[in-house]
Amino acid sequence: MSDVVKALNGWRIAGWGALAALLILPAIAMRFTPEVDWTASDFLFAGIILAVLGIGGEIALRVGRNAPHRSGIGIAALGGFLTVWINGAVGMLGSEDEPTNLVFIALVGVAIFASLIVWFRPSSMRWIMAALSAGQFAVGIAAGLWTMPGHSLEWGVLTFFALIWGSSAACFHAANQRARK
Q1: So what's the pLDDT on residue 58?
Q2: Which residues cross the membrane (predicted)?
Q3: Which of 8, 97, 109, 115 registers the highest number of CB atoms within 10 A of its CB?
Q4: How far is CA 1 from each of CA 62, 63, 115, 155, rounded to the nearest angstrom?
């Protein structure tokens, strides 16, 4: 086990504890207000995406070779979590029921698959994340032209996510540069 993983053990416990606390919050809120009304499937969905976020953090700590590499993986895990969470809650474009929003989740799924194939190597990951960043706008443009014509696009949301993926790509680029020295 690397020194970094050993040194962060307390932080890892705190991170998993924070994710569990986030899952418990709606249950507590349901006791005090009728506005929070989660079903078992809501808790299951939230539990799954929070667990995937935690696993992304674990992968960052265990696979990351240096700080930029770990940061790139961590930012990508957070971006994937936010993509699924926001699309499940309100949708990136239109409502959560808009089929175009499934494309954003599919992009993340393809990126996860590609990341596993290249085993998170920074030289490849920078291109995967750059493609994901460009994909945000490509889906927005396609939605505006074909799937949701006349609908006002949320360019701020698309830009926010493109910046997440672009930041991850920049971290992987920096990790690749460090590895080459």
Answers
A1: 93
A2: 12-31, 43-61, 73-94, 100-120, 127-149, 155-175
A3: 115
A4: 8, 11, 22, 43
Residue linked to tokens 């705190």: 14
Nearest to 29 by CA among 41, 19, 43: 43
Q: Which of 109, 171, 173 is nearest to 135 (CA)?
A: 109
Amino acid at 75: I
Domains of the chain: which residue ranges?
A: 40-180
Q: What is the pLDDT of residue 149?
A: 75
> Cα dihedral sign for 86, 89, 90, 91?
positive
